[in-house]
């Protein structure tokens, strides 16, 4: 049975196909234990390309109070060092290693503009509060190029109090917003992913 997380590999495959060079630039907001990061890195390498991965999360800085505020997972994430070790092992190329940035994404994520001109694939799955999601979007928007695919998790259809639904309803005409199937049902709570790309002129 498919889940919304299958959208990550499906959309990443499209991003990889559109990359002209040999390097695929990946940006992830909300790394947690690194499950999705490792899968993305391995998928890029399996396609014969190099992965430049940039991940942003609080790691040890995520307190129980902050986790509740952001409506996060029940279990706190592992340390940055543990996730870095895991992701480094996923790399097959010499000299390549992931970049993990610890801290509140409101402070750290604007720094992505110093690492890449345009990202190829951006996965936003960090804090669920409206202000955090809005901040994450505005931080990555400058590196969203003509062929960049941005994938938002945590869209609760019709709910404008949490998650990315409210932001998706406000994005201007320069962006295409595409809710993706399937919609997961978590004990009656509907959750789906949303794809955002720049509209073609």
Protein model, in words:
The structure is a single chain. The N and C termini lie far apart (37 Å). Helix 6 links the parallel strand 4 (119-124) and strand 5. The protein has helices spanning 6-18, 35-46, 64-69, 80-90, 105-108, 130-140, 165-168; strands spanning 23-29, 50-57, 99-102, 119-124, 144-155, 175-179, 184-186, 189-198. It contains 7 helices and 8 strands. It is of the alpha/beta class and 201 residues long. It has a single domain, classed as Rossmann fold (3-Layer(aba) Sandwich), CATH 3.40.50.150. Strands 1, 2, 3, 4, 5, 6, 7 and 8 form an 8-stranded mixed sheet that branches. Helix 1 packs parallel to helix 2.
Largest sheet: 8 strands, mixed
CATH class bucket: Alpha Beta
CATH superfamily: Vaccinia Virus protein VP39
Query: Helical segment tally?
Result: 7
What can be said about this structure in brief?
By secondary structure, the chain is α/β, with parallel strands linked by helices. The chain is 30% helix and 27% strand.
Q: What layout of secondary structure does this protein have?
A:
Layout: H1 6-18, E1 23-29, H2 35-46, E2 50-57, H3 64-69, H4 80-90, E3 99-102, H5 105-108, E4 119-124, H6 130-140, E5 144-155, H7 165-168, E6 175-179, E7 184-186, E8 189-198
Parallel strand pairs: 1-2, 1-4, 2-3, 4-5
Antiparallel strand pairs: 5-8, 6-8, 7-8
Task: Name some characteristics of this structure.
single chain, 201 residues, alpha/beta, Rossmann fold, eight-stranded mixed β-sheet, 8 strands, globular
């Amino acid at each position: 049975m498919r889940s919304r997380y299958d959208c990550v590999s499906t959309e990443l495959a499209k991003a990889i196909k559109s990359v002209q060079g040999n390097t695929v630039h990946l940006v992830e907001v909300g790394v947690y234990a690194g499950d999705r990061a490792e899968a993305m890195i391995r998928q890029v390498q399996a396609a014969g390309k190099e992965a430049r991965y940039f991940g942003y999360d609080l790691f040890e800085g995520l307190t129980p109070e902050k986790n509740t505020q952001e409506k996060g997972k029940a279990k706190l994430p592992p340390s940055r060092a543990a996730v870095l070790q895991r992701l480094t092992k996923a790399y097959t190329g010499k000299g390549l290693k992931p970049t993990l940035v610890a801290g509140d994404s409101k402070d750290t994520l604007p720094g992505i503009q110093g690492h890449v001109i345009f990202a190829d694939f951006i996965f936003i799955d960090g804090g669920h509060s409206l202000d955090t999601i809005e901040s994450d979007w505005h931080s990555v928007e400058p590196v969203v190029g003509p062929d960049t695919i941005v994938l938002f998790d945590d869209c609760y259809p019709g709910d404008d109090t949490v998650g990315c639904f409210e932001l998706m309803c406000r994005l201007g005409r320069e962006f295409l917003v595409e809710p993706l199937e399937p919609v997961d049902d978590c004990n009656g709570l509907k959750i789906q992913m949303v794809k955002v790309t720049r509209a073609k002129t």
